[in-house]
Design goal:
alpha/beta, five-stranded parallel beta sheet, three-stranded antiparallel beta sheet, 52% helix, elongated
């Protein structure tokens, strides 16, 4: 007995069976039911989400031997008659022609298609359907050859163009787009993919671990056809239940323990451990761009958890790691880390020395300053933040702030006064340093980028009588701090 791939065996036969494409199913079945089928359609969307399948179901519905009766009511095909089965299986059919534009893309091919379309369907009850896959591969001349027949099509002839790159058609042959109805297919969510895989596993009497299904859904990236093919690949890799480890071995995936270990390394600021981690990845032959892409997915899931959401499609290992680390991060920290990753991802993908870029990225993460919450700073200083319901009391008068230049160290400037007396007396150097990130953030929130840069390069210190001493590192920064004295005083008063 010849084995048939799962992706073919479980290919939908009705519009209602299209997963995650309800808008397409409703539009096409409604057109068939109301006899309002357009002469040309453009089905656009990612690979493996059902474009060609939808085109075949449309052809089945238009040529179903039981059209409008019983199971074929409501614009659906019956999926069981001889015509439906031939179209669904891709067998030779006079009235349904599938063309691969990747290998039939020239003007001569388009002219041959145009001439064939002039012939009537095999019977008066049938329609003639031309399904053109990879339509973005057609040349400009080929589209020009088809333009006339798309404007004035023969009766009962329907063209269906499927493409994952509709923008190329817009660039090559924009006029044809106005001659077609367009349906955009969406990527299928991980939960929907997992549910479909569950259904297939039950029908096939296969035991599959939940983590294995989550891994397959993550790798499939919204493509159900790819998910079924990956499950097939894992089944062929060994006997017994399909486990997450078996899926990783079959697909050559990076173990989630590696990502969990990378999270631990960054959270604990173990910079020295970056090099051994990357060395192990290189020795194992790991694709470093794949590793960085996976890290991005993990950080996104961590950010979602920090913001109160619940990430989908994670294995138990990653769910546990993210739950453990979420309390130690703020959204701003993760956004900065993701920004650094985005800046280096292209270089990692293209560079012959990707290892150096990955090491640098991980080192930047381990050395990254963390965002400081103002309420935490106040608690560290032994005071409470001002109530949000009422504006803070005005600060006591402070002598003018004169940031101190290293060249004038012998004559210390009048210090900037804190906005309120400290319960514990004069501020210690540790307290000033604890307060410093909050002051920098307060200056940055006032859109004072240059001033924040000068202040960030300065050295804070504790003076006498509850005063803050700021020592500039250059004459330019000293001058900038002089000009922004009022903003600094306001920032200090605000914290």
């Amino acid at each position: 007995m010849t084995y048939q791939a799962l992706a073919r065996t479980y290919r939908p036969k009705r519009f209602a069976e299209l997963i995650g494409q309800d808008h397409v199913a409703a539009g096409l079945s409604g057109a068939v039911a109301r006899n309002r089928v357009a002469h040309a359609y453009l089905l656009a969307g990612p690979r493996g989400v059902g474009k060609t399948t939808a085109a075949r179901i449309l052809a089945m519905a238009l040529n179903c031997e039981r059209r409008g009766r019983g199971e074929a009511a409501g614009g659906e095909p019956c999926g069981a008659c001889d015509s439906c089965m031939r179209i669904w299986s891709g067998a030779a059919n006079l009235d349904v022609v599938e063309i691969d534009a990747a290998s039939n893309r020239g003007v001569d091919d388009a002219r041959a298609l145009r001439e064939r379309a002039a012939y009537a369907p095999s019977t008066e009850e049938r329609s003639k359907i031309y399904i053109v896959d990879e339509a973005h591969m057609l040349t400009r001349e080929a589209w020009n050859a088809l333009l006339k027949i798309l404007e004035e099509p023969p009766p009962r002839v329907v063209f269906v163009f499927a493409t994952p790159e509709p923008q190329k058609i817009a660039n090559t042959a924009a006029p044809v787009l106005s001659r077609m109805q367009r349906f955009d297919f969406r990527r299928i969510g991980p939960q929907a993919v997992v549910q479909r895989l569950h259904h297939v596993a039950e029908r096939e009497r296969i035991t599959v671990e939940e983590d294995a299904l989550a891994l397959i859904a993550r790798v499939a990236a919204g493509g159900l056809r790819d998910a079924l093919s990956l499950l097939d690949q894992a089944l062929a890799f060994g006997e017994g239940p399909v486990t997450a480890a078996r899926v990783r071995d079959a697909l050559g995936l990076i173990d989630d323990e590696v990502y969990a270990g990378a999270l631990d390394l960054v959270a604990e600021r173990r910079s020295a451990d970056v090099f051994p981690l990357v060395a192990r990845l290189v020795d194992a032959g790991t694709d470093l761009s794949e590793f960085v892409g996976g890290l991005g997915d993990v950080l996104r899931a961590l950010l979602l958890r920090v913001l109160g959401g619940e990430p989908e499609g994670l294995t138990e290992t990653l769910r546990t790691a993210i739950a453990r680390h979420a309390p130690g991060y703020r959204a701003g920290d993760l956004l900065r880390m993701l920004r650094l990753l985005a800046e280096g991802e292209e270089a990692i993908r293209r560079s012959p020395n990707a290892r150096l870029y990955v090491e640098t990225l991980l080192l930047q993460w381990t050395l990254l300053d963390r965002t400081v919450d103002l309420s935490d700073v106040m608690r560290a200083l032994g005071t409470s933040p001002p109530a949000r319901s009422a504006p803070p009391a005005p600060p006591p008068a402070a002598p003018p702030s004169r940031p101190q230049s290293p060249a004038r160290a012998a004559a210390p400037p009048p210090p900037v006064s804190m906005n309120q007396p400290r319960a514990a007396g004069e501020p210690t150097l540790e307290r000033v340093r604890a307060l410093w990130p909050a002051i920098l953030d307060a200056v940055g929130q006032q859109q004072q980028r240059m001033l924040r840069e000068a202040l960030g390069a300065a050295t804070p210190g504790a003076g006498t009588g509850g005063e803050l001493v700021v020592e500039a590192d250059s004459e330019d920064h000293r001058a900038g701090l002089e000009r922004g004295r009022g903003v600094v005083e306001s920032a200090v008063a605000g914290v």
